[in-house]
Each structure stands twice: as C-alpha cells, then as structure tokens.
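Suppose a colleague, Dr. K., hands you the sequence of a protein chain of 352 amino acids and asks what its three-dimensional shape might be. Before reaching for any lab equipment, you can write down a predicted structure in token form. Begin with the sequence itself:
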Amino acid sequence: MKLEKYGWNQYIEKCSLTLNHDQSFGRVFSEYKGQYKLMTEQGSYLAEVTGKFRHQANGREDFPAVGDWVVCRERPSEHKAAIDRVLPRFSKFSRKAAGSTTVEQIVAANIDTAFLVMALNHDFNVRRLERYLTMAWDSGANPVVLLSKADLCADLDAKVASVQEVAFGVPIITISAIADTGKEQLGAYLGEGKTVVFLGSSGVGKSTMTNWLCGEIIQKVNAARADDDRGRHTTTSRELIVLPNGGVIIDTPGMRELQLWTASEDSLDHSFTDIETLAARCRFRDCSHQNEPGCAVQEVLNTGALSQSRYDSYLKLQRELAFIRRKNNVQERLKEKARWKKIHKAIRKKHE
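The predicted structure, expressed as tokens, is then:
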C-alpha cells in the first residue's frame, strides 16, 4: 500500500531524509509498553526502537508516538522491524501525563485536524471545551468542534450558540451517527494524505463515529450509563485507522484528566480572543484586572456581557500554564544534567 494511504503528505516530504539501502519509512499505528505496530509500504510489523535510539533518547517525548513517521529496518521473515529514528513532527497534541509527575504524554502526532468532540447531552461543558481549544491551538493542528448525538438534544440552537461564544473562528459541526447527519461536512477534512484525531471525554461517540465513517464496525462501542447518561470507556488505547476512501483517523480513549503540558501565549489568545481584546483597552498596560481604574475587563464583567465563569476559566488556565512552565524549567535543567553525565561517562569508557 502506498504511504499516502497512511497519511504521507507534503510536510513529511519536506524532511528530505536519505535512507540507507536497508531502511524504509513507516508510520506508528499503535503503541503498547514500548512495542509498536508499524505500517510500511510492505505491510505491518511489530517494532521496537534500537538500543542506540534508546540510549540517545532524553525523555519520554523522544520515543515514537501514535501518528509518528519513522525510519526503520524491516525483517519480513520475522514480521518485525527496528526503529532507527523518528522524523520531525509537524504537529502534536500533548497533555501532562496523568499522575503527580510532570511528564509529557503525546496523544497524537502529525495530525492535520483535531476534532474536539462534545456530546449534546450531560457531557456538554463549555469550560472543558475552552481547555481543549487552548491545547488544540498549541498543537499545530486545526481545531474543529464536533457536537455529537444531535438526535438527543432538545435545545440544539442554544447549545450551538454557547459554543460559538467561546470557539472564535473555529468550525462547529453538529452530527448524529444514529440519524446519519453531518457526515458530508466532515468530508473536507478527510482524504488521502490527511490525518485527523478524535479528542473528547468517554462516551461522546468517538468510536461510534469511527465505525460510521468506516462503514463497518471497527471499534467496540458501549452504551452510556442509563442512570446519568455518562460515557463508559470503549477505546482503551490510541490507534490509527485507515479510512476506505483515503485518509486516516486516530481514535483515542476518553480523557478523564486534561492538564496542560505547554501552551503559548498565542494559543491562549486564540481561545480567549474576547478577553485579550478587552485587556488591550484597559487604561494601564500592566492592568491586573482587579481594582485598577479604567479596567475594561472589570467594566464588562460588571455589565454581564462577559460571564464570570469564562473569566475564571481564563485565569485558571493562565495559572496552570505558569505552574507547568516553572516545573518544565526544572525538568529541562535535570535533563541537561543527565545528558552531560551520559556524555562524560561515554568519554571515560572510551579512554579506559
């Protein structure tokens, strides 16, 4: 199968890497505890990184992630391959890994479009969507909001309007796999050479949409809990799926935790354009938007034109981003120290 079927496009082509006679390009379809399902033009392989790769890696983010393009050496008779290196990523959606440690978890790599899926039932949460939008803008992919389960929503127009208030300039598509509506609007983002990822909470319909677009049951689907309409985990790992008409989908498990990893000021500005525009109108450039005279933000909060909950969400993300940056600075210093320790150890070994 041609690599274009797996999402190979002009961004990857620009890498212009030369291969040795025994090397080829492949894409990571899934990963489980250091083992990878790899697809090349010759077929599917179970792959691992080489010892040299492992030795040179400075952290978890240096290892292959689902969606990565890699240089590998195939062993067809064994149905195995060795990964020599990862090609530069043109986009990646990352979050802080769940737990107390400050570690980056790459959810999906080399994606063109991030479908942010939110169901039009009890899952509907505009504040959570603001967080997804901030992270999507920072990923390098183009965000698109998918409002799923439209057939269950009695106040569709009101919910769409509330999403429009926070998703400035982002396409919003209402869909229903059960009613078979909205599929044609997704067509512009799908096709050969394109990669999309479904991101959202458990039970929003990501696996159902994957089956819907594939025209067959690819992913197991569980019904939402009857007592509170909350979702159940169906997908338990990230997986890349080739669509019959071209292009690929990365289906991901529902995220119980969605903590920022990194986010630039630009990505926060994208998500909160209204607040940034107001801040630019404050009398003082260093306005903290608390008790200063001539504060445009406080003025609009007092009139109710800007909701307190949206402003609180903006402040929360700012604080979280500042905290992550402080932690990352410490991590970077430790990684650099470890890197030089490794270099000095190799030099000593060479002269022994």
